[in-house]
Amino acid sequence: MPSASRSATPDRATPDQTDPDQTDPDSPAEPDPYPLLRLAEPVPEVVVDPVTLAQVAAEVAAGSGPVALDAERASGYRYSQRAYLLQLRRAPAGTFLVDPVATGELGPLREALFGPEWVLHAASQDLPCLSAVGLRPRRLFDTELAARLLDLPRVGLAALVEDLLGLRLAKEHSAADWSTRPLPRSWLEYAALDVEVLLALRDLLAERLVEAGKQTWAEQEFEALLSFTGPPTRIDPWRRTSGLHRVRGARALGLVRELWQARDAIAAGLDISPGRLLSDAAIVEVARTMPTSRGALRSLRGMRHRQARSHLDAWEKAIGRAGALADADLPPLSAPPDGPPPARSWQQRFPAAAARLTACRAVVSALAKQHQLPAENLLAPDGVRRLAWEPPEVVGPASVGAALTATGARPWQVGLTAAPLATALTGVGTGSSAKGSTDAAYR
Hints:
The chain is α/β, with parallel strands linked by helices. It folds into three domains: 31-225, Nucleotidyltransferase, domain 5; 237-329, DNA polymerase, domain 1; 343-441, HRDC domain (DNA polymerase, domain 1). It contains 22 helices and six strands. Helix 4 links the parallel strand 5 (118-120) and strand 6. Helix 20 (397-406) packs across helix 21 (411-428).
């Protein structure tokens, strides 16, 4: 679990505090309703060598039931998304901490984990880095996703521990640099606690899924996660530069692209987070000012940081490359189309598509309320937009179901939504001035 997943859902709102000057100093402090979660056993030593890894793998393999897993990365510190610490827990063996960088090949652990069900929280965040070290599940249970299907009000790990187990999970190391070596003892305790209660949460959530008649839905969702290796590669990832909307003109956009690519190459080589090398704000500042000398570049606010100044040669070369680009090689002002245009433009430019989208969203919202689900878990918003933008030529439950399946909808989602969506589309009409006009929508 990446460190951020603990706080993905806000904690409970804290009531306004009484003015301390008016508080009775002799009154007893209000007890914390959630006792702090403590480890059941001492903090385990980190496995850092192949011999100990083989022993741990044997203990895990000899255990019974599911295996709780977690992974800690160094997001915000390192360029790579590699796992720097693995946490495992299985009955009756207990909890193990493994340094995948120090141990190297994880073959014995891979074999031990090949058969059991994995229990993870927010699995889509951990599966890519686990896959990178050769660990792939055959079966899994995602406690966050289960909580979403149950429409629980809070689905972060700390929140679930509070709401379902009545315990408080400490969060003081949620933004730690897990590439640090040696790892402090308090960090290791924090990491071990992440898997301390996952198995108990899994059992409680599984029970609730059965009671709610949603076990099959969860199984299909978990099955879909087995092949997840990470988000798709973005077209023109440099366009995600924060503040890009402030950059005007194709030449300036070309400079953003050149700086972004130069930063990315250097960051990858140094294994440092790109933002720590050169901030997005600095890239935008350079593109807006177009400095013509090294002195002018160095004087910019974004170049005050040591890391940015240490690579002035690279930024100067990027500026030179951008200035030498032929007009035909400059990037377009808007991103190339990758699906429907932003829905906010539909009402004015594509009213028929806007009407379809409104009708489809109303269906999804009503069904989500009926089945006690978040609308986005009933059907992905992008799938709804794509269906409304370009519905099947002949609308019916089968054709709408096929269109939804093509966008990644699972059978249970198709079964609940295909017929109602077909009815809604038929009701507003499927004639489309938008069909085939995606490119024009971006101009």
